[in-house]
Amino acid sequence: MNGLLLLGIAIVILIAAYLLYGRYLVKSWGIDPRAKTPAVRKEDGTDFVPSNKWSVFAHQFSSIAGAGPVTGPVMALVFGWLPAFLWIIVGGIFFGAVQDFGSLYASVKDDGKSMGQIIEDYIGKTGKKLFFLFAWLFTLIVIAAFADMVAGSFNGFNAEGAKVAPNASAGSISILYVFVAIAFGYFLKKVKWEGWKKAVIGIILIVLMLAIGIAFPLYLSKQMWIYLIFIYIFFASVTPMWILKQPRDYLTTFLFIAMIAAAVLGVVLSNPTITTPAYTGFVSSTGSYLFPTLFVTIACGAVSGFHSLVSSETSSKQIENESDMLQVGYGSMLLESLLAVLVIVIVGSLTNLSETGVLNETLSNMALAQGATPFTQFSVGVTGLLSSFGFPQEWGLCIMTMFVSALALTSLDAVARISRMSFQEFFEVTDGSEPTGVIKFLTNKYVATIISLLGGYLLSVGGYNNIWPLFGSANQLLAAMVLITLAVFLKVTGRKGFMLYVPMVLMLIVTMTSLIMSIYNICIKLFVTGGFVFLTDGLQLIVAILLVLLGVMIAWGSGKKLIEVKKEA
Description:
Elements: H1 3-29, H2 38-41, H3 53-64, H4 68-76, H5 81-109, H6 115-122, H7 125-154, H8 165-191, H9 195-215, H10 222-238, H11 245-270, H12 290-297, H13 305-313, H14 325-348, H15 350-355, H16 361-368, H17 374-387, H18 393-427, H19 437-442, H20 445-460, H21 464-492, H22 501-529, H23 534-568
């Protein structure tokens, strides 16, 4: 398959989807540009911060475009590029973008409330409690998986103990990013620059950070990076949005756009051939089944429940005008789908790039090595495409490693904040009574953050390969529950919600099937084949069982409410 042709088809379809289906949703649900948004009415300088639509778009995209759009499509290539491509396109347009936009829309229209609070309003207090518990457990899985990925990408030493300069430089740039983002945030707070002035300063800062990071690599072990990452996301969770999260997301978005532009340019100039088979069969070489594996492996890029948490917990509290919601909610998801297609084209073409000499021997060995991570394969592929046109290989590899690691790191700091807020909202008292000392302790933002990060750290011990199947299933189950909740919200408020019915039923079937299969496989390990380890398999088994139970209870309560509302109507 011609890689450029496949990319071109994807771009045309996604643009058409935004202009046609996205605007259809706006017309169906209704938007009032004159209405005061929750960010404006409840501005507090911490969580509710009205912001320019491009700043909110930057936050939304950088938060949702984590490791998923790189990792998921690469892992799904075991079934061939065609099933992965079709699910990204169909899922992105009709499942993921609808969920992201719908979550943002519902939150903005309902006073900036989170999905859990919306569930309380339209389904009941029990549903709210169950949802927040589910969301919190899910965030622990995300923290564990993404922290392990990022630490591995920044690891300054290979298996033999030799220094790996690109990784070390990428880590150095990432540390610079934190401190520069803080300084940038204070600077913007003082001068209040927007538009081209803000963009120019941002680009200059990025160039300087890249140059310094490449010149001064930081050689640290993977375990040391784990510790540093958890320290960073602790502070990202408890500090006001404008100090760290907003300016970092803004700066990081330039990286993402540059990465996507570089990848597109490389594909256009090299016109690679996808050598991965179009379809390998219903059963992969690893023994996994296309259904449900494909649909939970490719989450980000198609549909991801995590996105709804970003939309309703943080982005909705920054929307300055309701007319910005389509770009922020629907548009950012379609851009993520484009990134996922790029990953398919580039990683699917690695063998061809190696055979044609686009990848030199060093790059070929890195990309095609047994156990090469999706991050490595994508980074090497783009580096090879650009280096063939004169761009220094060492710089390219370092910058691309930084780019793809930044994808996961920006999701990490967002999910750490969401995890803390979910934990707090689970215990918060809403009946007007005075909270007890224990409740006050547990809802303290520092305590809630420490407990959440500790849970994520324990799950990270097993590595992302063990966590990813559970992450995918939990993520998609969350999406199913959010879609059901949105259907109830739209029905109760007199809006059309039929476009959610097929996605919510399909995702519920897919995820329950996947989770039950995961539980079965772990039990086989425990009772039959042996090799069961509590810190990995045991924790995953506990979490998987809890997710199934919580998912069934939430889906049952929400579904019953939806049926009741339809009857009343």
